[in-house]
Amino acid sequence: MTALAATALALLVGGVWAVFALTGVDPGFEELPECAAAEGETLDGLVPEHEAEIDEGIGGLPEPQRQGVQCRWATTEDSPHTPSAARVVLVRTEADAQSSAEEAAAGLLEGASERRDRTALSGLGDEAYSWFEQENGPLGWGCVGVRRMNLYAETCYTSSADFEGTEPVSEADMVDGAKRLAKDLQSELDAELE
Length: 194
Prior knowledge:
Layout: H1 2-23, H2 41-46, E1 50-57, E2 66-75, E3 84-93, H3 101-113, E4 119-121, E5 127-134, E6 140-148, E7 151-159, H4 171-193
């Protein structure tokens, strides 16, 4: 009886593996990427002479099947450049009783962008939106949210046109900066998957 159960289990596991292998289903991100995935030429150009202000895990995510990290870089106080900053949020999801890992990541994208004046983007991940966040201060943030398989990635960029940090560059420029950072991040993440 034990041998029969072991054989049935082996066939079941083998069958599941065969379905994945034959259909080419990618398991997605098995590990949460690090903030360093966003560090490259694009970040250097958007936020010259930057320093990392935040690089930490996101605590208190509502489901245990989610892991997240948040990152932020800003120009240094003694920089000869006008103030600018970029932030990145990465959340890796796993399947649960209610949804697949991809559906969970799609829910994060929907939740982050649904109440914004968002624009659908093509050529980024499996689905993506851009939007502008106006905050209480004089600046704001251009943002892009991307779902790539079971990973939600959000890139945001802000910059001032003056050294006092009171005159923002245009909303379009901030959103464009977030798009450029999202594309650079996506290239790096895709390389990690290979």
